[in-house]
Amino acid sequence: MKKLKRSGRLVDMTNFLLQHPHELISLGYFTERYDSAKSSVSEDLTIIKEIFETQGVGALRTVAGASGGVRYVPKVEKSTAELFVEELCEKLENKERLLPGGYLYMMDILGRPRTMNEVGKMFASVFADRQIDAVVTVAMKGIPLGHAIGTYLDVPVSIVRRDHRVTEGSTVSINYVSGSSRRIQTMSLARRSLPEGSNVLVVDDFMKAGGTVSGMIELLQEFRANVAGIGVLVEAEGAGERLVDDYVSIARVEEVNEKTKNIRVVPGNFLTKLEKERSR
Length: 280
Hints:
Elements: H1 6-19, H2 27-34, H3 38-54, E1 58-63, E2 69-74, H4 78-92, H5 107-110, H6 113-126, E3 134-138, H7 142-153, E4 157-160, E5 171-177, E6 184-190, E7 199-207, H8 211-221, E8 226-236, E9 248-257, E10 262-267, H9 270-278
Parallel strand pairs: 3-4, 3-7, 7-8, 8-9
Antiparallel strand pairs: 1-2, 5-6, 9-10
């Protein structure tokens, strides 16, 4: 890369950090990249750190020592999160979303990259200080959500399936009881997709009683994995006995009347969890 003026370094460095969340980057890398002195690079990073914090982009953390450097940690401002959650709840209350069984049509939300980007950053923000090695979600609707979160946490995503595919090689399968229908179902995970002993963030797009999440947790026991957290985009209230207790949700469906097509959606516990995590 040709030698840049300070303004050019700041732009390129900012872009690089945003593209590499949670990755520890040495000062030496930047000095070589820009052919600049460490003192100049340190001053640039101080400017970027101040802008990130004042604009709510995230935190820039410095790790001291010979093997140290800087790490960009994505964060979301509470006011930004509140506005997003409010808008999401309004969208979910559209009566045209109602499906048989009290489910809501959500593919337009899950299929919108900008929306998933924001959700991914929100979950990555609340779980930023936990040691997470992988995100685990269930096919198919959980995939865009899982990848959005994995991008901001800079960890791989493992996909649990309800059917075995020969292209995945050897798999581990279990039978589990669906929380809402109480039916016995099967889910599987490829052995090569998750190293044993991983710290895992379990993710689901829509949770009623929590049978799917509970099944994933049971399946992860076969990998000796540790569940570091559970993230749910939308949860439904009044779906019987909840099989999962400790989780983070963005929105909560309080009422679904299939006869009148009335839907009431309120914020989940995300904002409360965000405050709790930051006060640690």
